[in-house]
Design a protein that fits this description.
Helix content: 55-70%
Low-confidence stretches: none
Shape: elongated
Distance between the termini: 24 Å
Mean pLDDT: 91
Number of domains: 1
Length: about 160
């Protein structure tokens, strides 16, 4: 599948840490809502159909639902789907749109699904290492984070006066 070119085109500067963190905060709020919806659909839909309401209530009170690997997998998969859709389609999540940021390849094209998966997994690792993967951009001469480096992509700051056509 050929890569599609993102609009607007241009040689944009690499995004700084503060803007990235602001966009991450916006997206974090959306991700919390997404996980809440997935949890509700799973527990009140699927588990209620399998076990019934009374049994489900008893399981919840006993703590049997506290460490559900199926729910954790569904939540992780839905979060990846959220980011992958935005990153591969127009290079911007909603938080990135609000802060004028975009993920792209060096040639200005959208990243592919494999790059999105690499970004997602390495970004999780970046958080697990106390955010070191994000802070890495302060030392990297090209302003890249670990997930930028491993996915072969970059986050750029779009100018305010450039609008999509």
């Amino acid at each position: 599948m050929p890569k599609h070119t993102l609009r607007p085109q241009g040689d944009f500067p690499t995004a700084g840490l503060i803007r990235r963190l602001a966009a991450i905060f916006y997206d974090f709020l959306l991700c919390v809502a997404l996980v809440m919806v997935v949890t509700l659909a799973y527990q009140q839909g699927i588990l209620r159909m399998i076990h019934g309401g009374d049994t489900l209530r008893a399981m919840a009170e006993a703590g049997a639902l506290d460490h559900d690997p199926v729910l954790a997998s569904l939540a992780l998969l839905s979060l990846f789907a959220f980011f992958a859709k935005f990153w591969t389609h127009n290079g911007q999540t909603l938080g990135m749109q609000a802060w004028g940021l975009r993920i792209q390849n060096a040639d200005g094209s959208a990243i592919d699904l494999w790059q999105a998966l690499l970004r997602f997994v390495v970004a999780i690792g970046s958080w697990l290492f106390a955010g070191l993967g994000f802070l890495w951009l302060l030392w990297d001469k090209q302003g890249r984070t670990w997930h930028d480096i491993y996915s072969g992509s970059r986050v750029v700051q779009l100018p305010k006066n450039v609008h999509k056509k």
